[in-house]
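We modelled each protein-ligand pair independently. The example shown here corresponds to the magnesium ion entry; the chain sequence is given first, followed by the ligand as SMILES.
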Amino acid sequence: MKWVIFTDLDGTLLDHQTYSFEPAREALKLVKERGIPLCIVTSKTRAEVEEYRRVLDNRDPFIVENGGALFVPSTYFPFPFPYSRQEDGYKVIEFGRSHRVLLDELLKALEDSWSGIRPFSTLSEEEIVRLTGVKPHQVHLMKERGYDEPFLFEGEGVEGLIARFEARGLKVVKGGRFYHLMGNHDKGKAVRRLIDLFRGMDPGIKTIAIGDSENDLSMLKVVDLPVLVRRWDGSYAATRIDGRDPILARGAGPEGWSEAIFRILGR
Ligand SMILES: [Mg+2]
């Protein structure tokens, strides 16, 4: 069987608390030995993903910012395909609205009397460190967003603001600390495009996707074998995927990741 794996990072391959993938080390080794492509699909930015690809010695295509864009190393697929732009050795397929458009929309809303809006791009480094707990030197990685502008909202009536953006073909997702304004993309749309590219190379491939959260469900729907690991509180984000039974790993995060990979690939 020729497999391709799509994996979320935070809370899935990486531990929710420590960001470590140590418990999955043996399973990662097996994936590499078998020559199985391992494609990262995450809400993180390209700059953040590239750090993990270096540590994992990973050369496969990856998807950033919840499906905002797909980065394919330029010589990865031996046939031509449409892409949005070429940059730094990648062919980039964009699904999201550009960050510039999103920031403009926020600033326009701010002018139109939504005075409680504070776009992430307008926050100082000190404020970001205080709000998120990241180290000062990591702030610039967070700021390199292409397809999503986080914002704070102070005051009443955020529902009206969300409706305004939806009427303009955008969507707002509530994260842990910020609201996120983005285009109408998700992980599933980007993964489907990447699967088509792999099928162009080998029509017989079988696909696995592993995730832990609601924002992973769209990609779990478009693969042959959906896998959910437990969240840090012990729960699962879902127990059915479009009428199918996903593989539910007993472990949380990288423990569950490892268990599922050994179960599917055998030892
Ligand atoms: Mg996650």
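The chain has a mean pLDDT of 93.
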